[in-house]
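Consider the tokenized backbone below.
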């Protein structure tokens, strides 16, 4: 396949940035999108240029690193996959492909397609954990019965990989889907109850502090989420947050 890539190039956070055109040929339909980017970077390096910076790690849909906005869609045209799981057979010979970084004030561009998502880490640090007694008299987690439907729902929320596609797809750059998934994975389980009220309060406060926008129920986040995180998590978080504000 022969393609034309229009890639966002930005030297650093203070650089204005611009789109640069790269014709690529000999792309196999069986390549992953990131392998195609590797191929381009090999060529740029051979020609003595500056390779395109992009984030990646697991390359199997687990780590959430491969943040790319492809032809105006987070993680490209397919649903339920990350950029590393996207294959070039999803495109046609001769296609023009535009590749941009996540756009959100809370995710500043580091270089080219790489953005700083440490705002998510700080939200997790503010409350995305359970305190466990490790004195030696710890109760085995399996000794606490959890109804199957509840466990399934908690596991579904826990599949969020923190990729940030929800923020990038939202016109308000809201992080509600991410935060609500992280709140829900604990709120649905008995182990998450002791800190439930404090957790939601702290995580929502940190989310606001980081500069993410508010939710206006557009739903783009859930549609573009590679893990299909459901909007009901946002409703649960809002209920918990309201309750924690009234009780405190
Ligand atoms: S909710 Fe979905 S889109 Fe948002 S960070 Fe989690 S996995 Fe990514
Ligand atoms: S590189 Fe880990 S999810 Fe894509």
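A designed sequence for it:
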């Amino acid at each position: 396949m022969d393609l034309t890539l229009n890639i966002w190039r930005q030297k650093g956070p203070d650089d204005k940035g611009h789109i640069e055109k790269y014709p690529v040929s000999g792309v196999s339909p069986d390549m992953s999108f990131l392998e195609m980017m590797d191929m381009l970077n090999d060529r740029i390096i051979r020609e003595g240029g500056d390779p395109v910076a992009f984030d990646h790690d697991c390359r199997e849909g687990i780590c959430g690193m491969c943040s790319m906005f492809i032809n105006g869609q987070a993680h490209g045209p397919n649903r339920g996959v990350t950029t590393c799981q996207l294959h070039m057979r999803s495109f046609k010979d001769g296609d023009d492909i535009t590749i941009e970084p996540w756009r959100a004030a809370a995710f500043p561009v580091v270089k080219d397609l790489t953005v700083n998502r440490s705002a998510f880490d700080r939200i997790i640090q503010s409350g995305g954990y359970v305190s466990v007694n490790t004195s030696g008299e710890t109760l085995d987690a399996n000794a606490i019965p959890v109804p199957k439907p509840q466990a399934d729902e908690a596991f579904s929320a826990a599949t969020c990989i923190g990729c940030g596609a929800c923020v990038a797809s939202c016109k308000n750059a809201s992080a509600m889907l991410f935060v609500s998934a992280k709140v829900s994975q604990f709120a649905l389980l008995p182990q998450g109850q002791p800190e439930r009220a404090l957790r939601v309060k702290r995580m929502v406060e940190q989310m606001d502090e980081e500069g993410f926008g508010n939710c206006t129920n557009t739903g783009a986040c859930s549609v573009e989420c590679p893990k299909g995180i459901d909007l009901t998590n946002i409703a649960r978080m809002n209920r918990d947050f309201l309750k924690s504000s009234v009780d405190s």
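The chain has two domains: 3-111, 118-247.
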